[in-house]
Amino acid sequence: MAMTIHVDIVSAEKAIFSGKAEMVYAETVSGEVGIAPRHTQLIAQMRPGEVRLHNEGKQDEMFWVSGGILEVQPHQITVLADTAERADDLDEARAKEAIERAEKAMADKKSSIDFAKAQAELAEAMAQLRVIDKLRKIKK
Hints:
The protein is α+β, with helices and mostly antiparallel strands. The protein contains two helices and nine strands; from the N terminus they run E-E-E-E-E-E-E-E-E-H-H.
């Protein structure tokens, strides 16, 4: 039997996942990290993207997070996300609409605050589409 690590994924609204995984992959501002059981302690800022849980013999479970904090202890991983959803629950049409809105807002350039907000919304929506596309490829 393979070693596992306990994983909790929570957002500001609700707990998304609590269970075991043999390997966890997450996107941080420094790049993608892979975390195995008994990994050294780590705290990292996450960027919008996917969190993938791998268990041998099962299909990987995928989640989308808008950003947040990743905390790694030797026997537990906690993802404290601003917003999080199961990849299966993401809405492709809604993500594409968000991209269009953000691109339009960036083109207007009313103020630097609006521009920064539009950039963040664009990054989140594009990350959602990447996760949707990756999930679609896995299911084929």
